[in-house]
Write a structure and sequence with these properties.
alpha/beta, eight-stranded mixed β-sheet, 13 helices, about 10% strand
């Protein structure tokens, strides 16, 4: 066979793989319906481990690396979990046709909530000057909408959300109301105003991005801001998913997020800035890269693709953010001093301390 014929044969095999994937997804969708009817959990770690091990065995028999087979099966299972989660949301239909308003529904996370709530059977409407998804009715201003919503999600930028929460409190709107801000300090007064006006209010922080298709392995932070029943109701919005719901006091949110988001974002931006200012071109570095560099570059590149205005708000509006940034700067200075002083023992202590810290991660 010549090269063209071999490529045609390869294309045919690729098509067979995609056809098999589609058949597999159809079967996993049916499995999702059976699980939902039986009240079984979507995520079954023991079964998933068996599937991966089976793939390794079959791969070895065919001369295929086991790790590669495990990675491929992991992608297939991720696709299956996404379909089964969607089946669960649509079958449970907790929205039951009730109206829901997404304020800021034209933004990335606002659009995510439009899709998420629609899948649950809510009749979703958007309030956003930029509009929203094409198939969702939209108003330019939330104040133009009637007070009829069973659920209102405030997904606007932080500097806008603060005033919106106070405005909603002044109108004493009905239904469950929660924000999804990444920093809570700018929203605290609005959240208090809602609670004091008798509104059913909670605060939520989805710890994932708008490209997330399945919530397995994701966390949703839920905070009681003076209405415990509303906090439980907010948690139940995610009840049909595989997300882990973490309840925490509002006061604990920002100090932790300063490190979980603020420090990690700053570290990756500093990494990219150092590379950019080095004068070395990214393609040249990529050709010389190591596994560690490749992984770090992928994470940093993902950070750089996010909304810079949102990431600035996370840094600037968190009152605990400067302490995290100062810690990063102090750590870099300390590392530089150790290297400058040719202090190998101190360098080893730093690495061992880091290893000990990570090994204690539960």
């Amino acid at each position: 066979m010549d090269l063209d014929a071999l490529r045609a044969a390869l294309e045919a095999v690729d098509q067979e793989i995609l056809d098999a994937w589609a058949r597999r997804d159809a079967i996993t969708t049916a499995i999702g319906r059976v699980k939902q009817s039986a009240g079984q959990a979507i995520h079954d770690p023991e079964q998933e481990a068996r599937v991966v091990e089976r793939a390794r065995v079959h791969a070895a028999a065919r001369g295929i690396p086991g790790d590669l087979a495990a990675d491929l099966v992991g992608l297939l299972m991720h696709s299956a979990l996404a379909r089964q989660e969607d089946v669960r949301l649509r079958a449970e239909g907790q929205g039951a046709g009730r109206p829901a308003l997404v304020i800021g529904g034209g933004g990335n996370m606002g659009r995510w909530f439009c899709r998420f709530l629609t899948a649950q059977g809510y009749a979703v409407r958007v309030a956003d000057p930029a509009g929203g998804p094409a198939d969702v009715p939209a108003a330019a201003d939330w104040r133009e909408t009637p007070d009829e919503f069973a659920l209102t999600v405030v997904a606007a930028p932080l500097h806008i959300s603060a005033g919106m929460l106070e405005g909603i409190a002044a109108e004493r709107r009905q239904g469950l109301i929660f924000d999804i801000g990444s920093v809570k300090a700018p929203l605290a007064s609005g959240l208090r105003a809602l609670a004091e006006s008798g509104c059913r209010v909670a605060s939520v922080h989805p710890m994932f991005g708008p490209d997330t298709h399945v919530l397995h392995g994701c966390h949703v932070l839920v905070m009681d801001v003076g209405h415990p029943e509303a906090a439980e109701e907010a948690a139940s919005v995610f009840g049909g998913t595989m997300a882990e719901i973490l309840r925490m006091p509002l006061a604990e949110h920002d100090p932790l997020i300063a490190y979980v988001l603020g420090l990690s974002h700053a570290l990756n931006l500093a990494f990219l800035t150092a590379l950019q200012e080095s004068g070395e071109q990214a393609p040249r570095l990529a050709r010389l890269s190591s596994v560690t560099f490749d992984r770090q570059l992928r994470v940093a590149a993902a950070v750089a693709r996010e909304n810079p205005h949102l990431y600035y708000e996370i840094q600037q509006r968190n009152p605990h953010g400067p302490a995290a940034i100062h810690s990063l700067a102090a750590a870099v200075s300390r590392l530089a001093a150790v290297i400058h002083d040719d202090d190998e023992e101190a360098f080893v202590r730093l690495m061992r301390a880091g290893r000990s810290y990570v090994s204690g991660r539960g």
